[in-house]
Write a sequence for this structure.
């Protein structure tokens, strides 16, 4: 258990209607580079990009970044006297922007990054690395919190994913604007909310902090994200207010106390899900949804490196207003169905073994992410996940209208007293 911690510095974040045009207006009236997702190209017309006295260069991003993409984008940036980089899109766009600015400016820095990626799943870059120009971020998805985080994901030439980390990977300024997420499908809003919830809930179980504030904030964010998921599940089209709320909560998971005083790699579930998603070709959120119920069952039955059972009781109270009753694995599956994020039916006989071996090779052994977990541990976890995955996601609005979230969020009827003290003894 970590003995101390601090709040990580983050970008200046502007939130609400008009936030995206506002940060574009902050860009220097000189050469500005723009990386964008082609799916949101119509959004470009809504932003004051073409201004007198400045030049603009646009480059689409059509896939998650590879080392080659980092090299090519870094060279593109280096060939022009840019004064700012604007990234408009989801996690893949923001990840490429971060990596191109920090690691893509020379062949030597890309080669260094490539060496780190080949060695293991974690690739730390030095804090003193020069990012050269400011990064302005307009995320068009919710859940990753990439606009506020100090990490990025990159893939090498062999298809191996790595988590790159450095304090210099943070944007200077970011905008959370409903106009940027207006076309986001409801299913992706729900998945984004779940991703953000797991980012604080799993560390609270598996890598507890000695800081009381860390536990308290993790429970608060878990409760708020669970309430948002309940509201999203009632919506076929989450409105501006709801999408913005989820985006703000997601960003807060990276910026507050919730992850302070924990391991630098606080969610072991994330690393297993990363490899399962690669093996099966599914999203990381779908992989997390499959793995979560059997993981929680292991917290209850085994504790230890899987997580602390008493903290699960406290978190469950935060989510549902009561402690888990009976089979926590079955309860978790019902909860995922209620939130309409149940994983699809999956069958792949070789996936458990392949996932477990990849996870231990890339994140285990002497590395801290999955230290203490064996291939057998993780293979059995994946076997249980795939044996039970596949509930049908309920259709329709679940009792609400076809759209919601544009008006203030309705008051939750559950008692505020459901939040237990972060202290383990008083939580059980």
């Amino acid at each position: 258990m970590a003995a101390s911690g601090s709040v990580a510095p983050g970008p200046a974040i502007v939130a609400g209607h008009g936030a995206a045009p506002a940060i574009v207006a902050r860009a220097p009236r000189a050469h500005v580079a723009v990386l964008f997702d082609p799916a949101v190209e119509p959004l470009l017309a809504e932003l004051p990009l073409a201004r007198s006295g400045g030049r603009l260069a646009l480059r689409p991003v059509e896939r998650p970044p590879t080392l080659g993409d980092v090299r090519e984008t870094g060279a593109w940036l280096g060939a022009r006297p840019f004064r700012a980089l604007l990234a408009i899109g989801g996690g893949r766009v923001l990840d490429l922007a971060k990596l191109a600015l920090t690691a893509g400016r020379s062949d030597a820095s890309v080669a260094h990054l490539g060496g780190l990626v080949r060695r293991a799943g974690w690739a730390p870059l030095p804090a003193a690395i020069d990012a050269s120009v400011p990064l302005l971020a307009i995320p068009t998805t919710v859940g990753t919190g990439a606009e506020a985080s100090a990490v990025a994901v990159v893939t090498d030439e062999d298809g191996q994913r790595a988590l790159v980390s450095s304090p210099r990977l943070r944007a200077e300024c970011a905008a959370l604007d409903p106009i940027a997420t207006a076309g986001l499908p409801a299913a992706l809003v729900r998945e984004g909310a779940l991703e953000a919830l797991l980012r604080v809930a799993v560390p609270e179980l598996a890598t507890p902090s000695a800081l009381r504030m860390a536990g308290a904030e993790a429970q608060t964010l878990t409760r708020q994200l669970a309430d948002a998921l309940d509201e999203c599940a009632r919506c076929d089209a989450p409105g501006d207010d709801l999408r913005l709320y989820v985006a703000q909560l997601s960003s807060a998971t990276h910026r507050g106390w919730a992850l302070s005083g924990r391991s630098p790699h606080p969610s072991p579930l994330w690393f297993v899900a990363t490899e399962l998603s690669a093996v099966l070709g599914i999203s990381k959120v779908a992989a997390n949804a499959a793995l979560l119920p059997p993981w929680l069952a292991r917290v209850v039955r085994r504790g230890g490196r899987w997580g602390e059972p008493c903290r699960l009781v406290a978190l469950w109270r935060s989510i549902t207003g009561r402690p888990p009753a009976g089979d926590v694995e079955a309860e978790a599956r019902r909860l995922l169905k209620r939130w309409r994020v149940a994983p699809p039916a999956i069958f792949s006989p070789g996936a458990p073994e392949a996932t477990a071996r990849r996870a231990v090779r890339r994140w285990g052994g002497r590395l801290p992410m999955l230290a203490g977990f064996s291939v057998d541990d993780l293979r059995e976890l994946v076997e249980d996940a795939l044996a039970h995955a596949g509930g049908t996601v309920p259709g329709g609005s679940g009792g609400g209208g076809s759209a919601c979230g544009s008006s203030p969020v309705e008051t939750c009827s559950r008692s505020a007293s459901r939040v237990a003290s972060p202290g383990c003894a008083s939580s059980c």
About this structure: The chain has 15 helices and nine strands. The chain has two domains: 12-181, 186-238+263-388.
